[in-house]
Amino acid sequence: MLNTKADRSKLAFLLGRIAVVAGGIIWAILWVSRGQRWENLTKIFLRLNLWVFAATLGIFIAAQVIIALRWWLLLRSQSAFMGFWTLVKLHFLGLFYNNFMPGSVGGDLLRAWYVTKHTDKRFKAALSVFVDRVIGLLGTLIIAVFFYLLVLHGQGGGSSFSNKDITPLPLFVHKRFFPWAVAGVAAVFFGLLLYRPGRGILAKAWSYFTVQGLPVFKKLKDAIIVYCSSPIVILVVFGLTVVLQMVTITGFWFLGVSLGITASIKYYYICFTLAWVLGVLPISIGGAVVVEGLLVVLFTRFANVSTEQALALALCQRSVWMLASLPGAVIHLLGAHLPRDFFIDYKQAGD
To answer: Which sign does the torsion angle of CA 118, 123, 129, 132 carry?
Structure first.
C-alpha cells in the first residue's frame, strides 16, 4: 500500500518508464507489420551467421569482466581491497538489474549497496561505482567526438556526411540551450528570493545542505584528492575504457556485416556511442526502446542503412545485452554476491 507521496511518485515514475517501453514495442510491431517490412526483416535475420553472433556475445561478456577489473583498480587506488571475482559477480548482478528488472533501484545503486557489504570503507566503495560510471561515459563520449570530428572533416574516406547532415546530431544540436537553461535557473532562484515563502524554502534547503551535504562533500573531496594522487591508475582505467568500448563496437560491426550492412565502421563508433550515452537517461527500463530507436534513426539518416537493417542490428545488440546479463540472475539466486558474514569479505579483504 502506498502511504507516502514519495511512494506514489516512485510508482508513477516506474509506470511511466514501463509505458515508454510498452509504447515503443507496440509502435515497432505496428510499423513492421505494414507492407513488406516483416518479410524484409526476416530475410535480414536469416543472413545472420550464428557463429558471428556467438563471437560478438563472447566479446561483450569478456568486456564486462574487464570492466570489473577497471572497478577493482579504482577501489585499490582508494585502499579498499576486495577480491576481483567478488566485483565480477557484483558487476553482472548490476547488469542483470539494468536490463531485466523494471524496478526503481538501478544496477548502479544495487552495486553501490552490495559493495559496501564487502568492506568497512563504505563511502569510498560506493563512490567508486559513481566514478566507474563517469569514466565509462567519458570514454564513450570521447570515441563519439573523435569519430564525429573525423567524419566532419571528411577524413577516413567514403564519408557521406554533409554539413546539412551533421548539424542535427544530438552532440551539437543543443549548444544554444545551455545559456537559456542557466537563465531559467537564475530566474527561478531570484523569484524564490522575492517571494516570502520562497525564502523559507531556500533557508530550509541551505540548512539541510549544511547539516547533511557538507559532511558528504568533505568525504567526496577527500576521495577526489586520493584519486588525483593516483594519476597513473586513472589514466590506465581511462585508456582501458576507451579500448574496451572500441573492441565491443567492433564486435557489433562484424555482426552488422553478417546482417548485410555495408556501412563503414566509423559510423558504428559514432552511432553506438551516442545511443549508449543518451540511453543512460532514466526514461525507460535499461534504455530499452530509447537505444534501439536512436540506433535506427542515426544509422538510417547518416549511414545510408535501410530501416529494417538498422532495426535488426539494434535488436541483435539488445539480445547480446540480455544474454550477457543472465549470469547476474544466477548470481542473485545463489546469493553469490553476498559476503560470507554479510559485512566484510575477510578472505579477500587482505588480498
So the answer is: negative
Cell of 75: 577501489
How many domains does one find in the chain?
Answer: 1
Is pTM, for the whole model, over 0.70? Answer: yes
| Residue 18 belongs to some domain of the structure | no
Region of poorest pLDDT, from 36-50, 121-135, 301-315, 337-351 = 337-351
Contact at 8 Å (CB) between 276 and 140?
yes
Is residue 286 a part of any domain in this protein? yes
Beta-sheet strands, E only, within the chain: none
Range of the domain at 89: 41-174+230-349
251: left (phi over 0), alpha (psi -120 to 50) or beta: alpha
Q: Name the DSSP letter for residue 277.
A: H
Per-residue pLDDT of 319-329, as tens digits, reads 999 999 999 99
pLDDT tens for 197-232 read: 766 776 776 665 565 555 656 656 666 676 676 778
CA distance 153 to 92: 39
pLDDT at 4: 66
Structural domain includes residue 188: no
Is residue 1 in a domain? Answer: no
Closest residue by Cα to residue 286 from 16, 12, 100 = 100
The DSSP code for 228 is H
Instruction: Please tell me the distance from the alpha carbon of residue 214 to that of residue 175, in angstroms, as a whole number.
Output: 32
The residue among 307, 309, 242, 300 whose CA lies nearest residue 273 is 242
Q: Give 259-289 pLDDT, tens digit per residue.
A: 999 998 989 998 999 899 888 777 877 788 8
